[in-house]
Amino acid sequence: MNDIQIGLIGFGNIGAGVVKLLRENADVIRGKVGVGIVLKRIADLDITTDRGVPVDAGVLTTSVDDIFNDPDISVVIELVGGYEPAKSFVLKAIEKGKHIVTANKALLALHGTEIYAAADRKGVEVQFEAAVGGGIPVLTAIKGNLAANNVTSVFGIMNGTCNYILTRMTQEGADFTAMLQVAQQLGYAEPDPTFDVEGVDTAHKLAVLISLCFGTRIDFKDIYTEGISRISALDVKFAAQFGYRIKLLAIGKCVDGVIEARVHPTMIPLDSPLADINGVFNAIRLSGDFVGPVMFSGRGAGQNPTASAIVGDLIGLSRSMKAGAGRRMAPLGFLDDQITTLPVKPMSEMVSKYLLRFSALDKPGVLAAITGSLGTHGISIESMVQTARESADAAAVPIVIMTHEAREGAVLAALAETDRCDFICEATRFIRIEDNLE
Q: In the annotation, is 205 catalytic?
């Protein structure tokens, strides 16, 4: 069989990593596949900027049609990012009968169903290992070696920016704003970090994971999404005092045919393996009915880890084409006609333990009023800390309560009631707790 020829759309940082890997490890790849993987065309609006990797003459083009209309190109790598024109590029490549490799979690989270259906009609594959966890091979494992399991839950720390900020806040007792600035200075956070710190990037990845783990379509707007921008040094301090660490956690569960899909700051026990995932590292922990809990961790972003996942997908496709296997696997691992649409549990019905931090005037009767309101709404208290005023001039003191498991709707109703009281100085903060990460 002749070499596998591919086209690359988007020659940014990750695209340059793919070119570098294909060049430097060409002999390794050929030794594992039996044929070479040749980058025939690279399309980008900017083909003059030096990306730091050599490219053969005639490979670069500003026209994506040079890739779509080339019958020798059998695989297209999409690294444009975002929704458009990436979606149009992917659909056009599929219509031309070309397999797709992408790292675009946002595209798949919002338009995956349409893209997968188009690929099914044309009999081509869509591979996207790099879309979740960078170089961590979790999606391939879910679709492959773990495919015999009913997956019941998946938890993930899947944004290096947030994990770096929370790690530094934990280690140094610093506030969010200061650590965000450090992350930006080091290049771990974008100048506009909104997608990362407000949880949107993590929610995109969770949408992909939920579809793979549970075989269901999920509307992205049904994923509850809350970021870390309101987490304070005080929250981190009290979490540690109770034996927990705060992480931005993606949570997917399937219980009795109902999906939980949420992203938010979460207190996890210090003895949990996820609590030790620090800095820019990512981790995904899932549980299957036969395999039990399994955790994958590693670098979740960056040029080289992401390129590793992309070229891994290329190798898998090349092996299939070399063997004449055609479309060997549906994109989500389930047969297309077996994908369902399971209901998503409303956040008001979600049950969890909570850490509640009240800012209250230091006067008699306040604690009794707070606990009375919680009791009225069926919320029982597991433990509590009341500290002294930070200074003689401070009017408020923090009252920190850890609850037993409670329904979120009841917790919100109780806090709305107490926050209206004249002894509460600012809106009460609460953080959800996950003790059972199985």
A: yes
